[in-house]
From TrEMBL, chain A:
Residues of the signal peptide: none
Record's keyword terms, sorted: Cell membrane, Membrane, Transmembrane, Transmembrane helix, Transport
UniProt-listed GO biological process terms: transmembrane transport
Record-level GO cellular component terms: plasma membrane
Name of the molecule in the record: Carbohydrate ABC transporter permease
Presence of keyword Nucleotide-binding: no
Amino acid sequence: MSAFQGSKINPTRFHRTQIKYYLFLILLAVFMILPIIFMFSQALKPLNELFLYPPRFLVENPSFKNFYDLINVTSVTVIPMTRFLFNSIVMTASVVVLSILISAMAGFALSKMQFKSKRAIFEANIIALMFVPASVAIPRYLIVNQLGLTDNMLGHIIPLLALPVGLFLIKQFVDQTPNDLIEAAKIDGAGNFGVFWKIVIPIIRPAMATVAILAFQLAWNNTETSEIYMNKETLRTFAFYMTTLTGTGLENRVAGQGIAAAAALIMFVPNLIIFIFLQSRVIDTMAHSGLK
Amino acid sequence: MKAATRKSWRQELEAMVFVGPFVALFSVFIVVPVLVAIYLSFTYFNTVQVPVFIGLKNYVNLLTQDNVFMMYVLPNTFKFSLMVGPGGYILSFWLAWLLSQISRRSRSVLTLAIYSPSMTAAVAMAVVWLVIFSGDGAGYLNNFLIESGFIEKPIQWTQSPHYLMYIMMIVTLWNSMGVGFLAMLAGILNINPELYEAGYIDGIKNRLQEVWYITIPSMKPQMLFGAVMAVVGTFQAGDIGVQLSGANPTPQYAGQVIINHIQDYGFIRYDMGYASAVSVVLLLIVYILSKVCWRLFAEKE
C-alpha cells in the first residue's frame, strides 16, 4: 500500500502538505506562550523599565534584581519568603511521593486482585472523576478541623492524597500488564508484594510519571490549604504568599509588579521542567486513559 | 470448603492492604464531604451554633428568593460554561488533531507550548493578567489599543461589567488544553493506520469525513475522558473572575459564577447551610452533564 495517499497521522518526516498545519499550530502556540514570555520578561525587568511609558512588552536590560528583592524584602510579614518556599517544597514532595504510592497500590489491587468490593470501589472512583473539590470546601474544612489537621503541616498533605484521576490512570495502565507475567512470578514464589514491587512498578513507570505531574501541579499550585486550614503564617506555602503579592491594586504598585512576576516565575518553572522531562511518558499513559 | 473460605479471607485482607490507604483517604476527603454537604444543605448553619434542620428551605430560597442567583449567577454560569466547556473541548480536539498531523520532534515542542498554560497556577498568572489588563493608559493592552487607534480612552478591563466576563472566557480558554487535551492527542496517535486505509477504500473522500467516520469513533474512550475533564474543569475555573477583579462579589456581579456564589455565602456571609445547598446543585449539574457526555461517547455494546 505504498501508493496510499490518505491519512498522514503521525508522519515520520516533513512534507509540504503539512505546512498548513504548521501555520495554524505555530500561530496558536505563539498566542499560548505570549503571556508566559511576558511573565519571564516582566520578572527580568529592572525598575526603570517597569515604570517605562509607553510600556514595552519585552525586557531590554535583563537583571535579577527582582529575584534578589523577592528574597530579601519581606513585604507583608516579617517571615522571609524562603520559609514559604521551604513549606511548599516539603508539602509538594510529600504529596507527590505518597499519592503515587497510594494510587499505584490501589491501582494494582483493582486491576489484578480479586476481592468483593472491587467493582464498587472502581465505580465510585469513576464518579469521583466528576468531583469538583472547590464545591465542598466547607465540609472539607470541618473534617480537617475535626481531625486536628489545622495549623499542622499534615493539613497541607493528607487532604490532597486521594487523587481519583491518578488512580484511574494507573489502573488502566496496570490492565496492560500481561497476567502470565504475574502468574509466572507467583509460581516462582512471589507474594502480592513481590509481584507489585518487582513486576508491576517497573511496567507502570510512565503512568506513575503522569500521576507525579498531576500531583505536583495540584500541590505546588494549591492555595486552598494555606488559606482555609492554616492560621499560622509560618505554615503557609509559597503559592499562598503569591496571593499576598498580587491582591487588589497590583496594577498601581508598579514596583511590586517585578517582584510578583519573579515569584510567578518561581511558581511556573518547576512545572515546566518536570513536564519537559516526562512528556513522552505522559503521552504513553494517556493512550490508555479512555473511559468506557 | 473450610480451606477455601480461609483462602478467600486472606485474599480480601491482602487486597485491603493495597486499596485500604486510598479508600480511607478517598472516603474521608471526598465521599464524606459530599455527604456532609448534602446534610448541611437541609440545615441552617452559621458555623458557631449547631446546625438546625430546616428541610428544603435552602433549596426553596435558592429558587424563589435569591435574586442574585437567578439574575446574575445562573445566566453567567450558563454563558461561561457554554463558551468555555464546548469551546475548550473542541479547541483541544482540533489542536490535538493538528499536532498528530506533523512529525514527532516538532510535535513535542508545539505540544509543550500549547500545554504550558495549563501548568500555570491561577495565582501566579494573576500577576500577568492584572498587568496586561491594567485599567490606566500605561496598561499593556490599553496602550497597545490606543497606539494602534482602536480605542481613545483607556478601558477599566477587569473592573468593567462589560468586559470582565469576556476576559474570564479568554483566560480560561487559554489554559483549557489540559489533561483531556493530552488524552485526546494520545488517542489520535494510537489509532491503527489500517483503519484509515480501509476507510479510504470504503469511499471516504476528504479529511473532514476521515475525522468524522474514523478518528472520532476509534477514540471514543479518550473523547469521553476529555469531555468529562472539560465539564469538571469548566465549573472549577469560575474562580478566575474573583482573581481578576480582586473582589467577591465581582463588580456588579458581572463575573459571578456558581463557585463564587458558594464562597460568597460560605466564607464571607458564613451561611454554610445555604452555601451547601448551592454546592449540591453544582455537583448535580456536573454529574448530569458528565452523564450526557457518557451517552454521546460510550461504546455501544
